[in-house]
Amino acid sequence: MHDTVFPADLDLMLNRRLGAPVEAAAYFAVAEAPANAGRHSGATRVHVTIADDGTALHITVRDDGHGGADPARGTGLLGIQRRLAAFDGELRVSSPAGGPTVLDMELPCAS
Ligand SMILES: Nc1ncnc2c1ncn2[C@@H]1O[C@H](COP(=O)(O)OP(=O)(O)OP(=O)(O)O)[C@@H](O)[C@H]1O
Ligand SMILES: [Mg+2]
Fold it and tell me: Which residue numbers delimit the Histidine kinase/HSP90-like ATPase domain (predicted)?
């Protein structure tokens, strides 16, 4: 297993500070998901989108790798799930064989 270096794009649509616990959960998700892409996916690109709609943060991490992400096989994706669940948020994983892998995360954060 080798970490790979590849370009990452970030679209950030957020212009307020959130509560520290919410920011910590978002930080963890945005650290873990691209790290997984680098370690496991064979991707050449990863794209991160963070959008605040006023009631929830929507975070999407997509890579163009070979797929096969499975929360049952590690602690990282389960850790994201657990942190999001604390805010009634959720993680959806789409990672068919052959890719791509898309993680969709919703993190409620009404002001
Ligand atoms: N972006 C991805 N592309 C392909 N496979 C992935 C991807 N992300 C995760 N996986 C697969 O899903 C498994 C679970 O990922 P998870 O992050 O939970 O654990 P991990 O990265 O193996 O270990 P750690 O507990 O250190 O995070 C990985 O072992 C890997 O097989
Ligand atoms: Mg991981």
Answer: 26-108
